[in-house]
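Forgive a beginner's question, but would it be possible to get a protein, spelled out as residues, together with the matching structure tokens, please?
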Amino acid sequence: MTKYRLLYLVLLLIVWLNNSTPVITKPILQNTEDCAALLREARDFYIQGRYTEELEQYQRALFCYREIDSQQGEWTTLNRIGLFYYDMGKYELSLIYYKQALSNSRR
């Protein structure tokens, strides 16, 4: 991979994070059931074709699992976000999330 391609991918990620990552400033969810509910809601949004809301729920679930320090939940959510981007044809972003999930599974 050339350094320009890598720079492009980093810039793409920065722009995406600035534009689409929900800002959550305090924990509002406290247990695995709350986090799992967010994943179920994301799946429901997928079924309804509401992809923006689906991704937002995945981001909330990821934050939730990180807040309660659930590595399995974090791994599952990162994989689902990776699959989301893969389905949307955003393969570079998909790969970023899959790599995060893989790195988390090795901890």
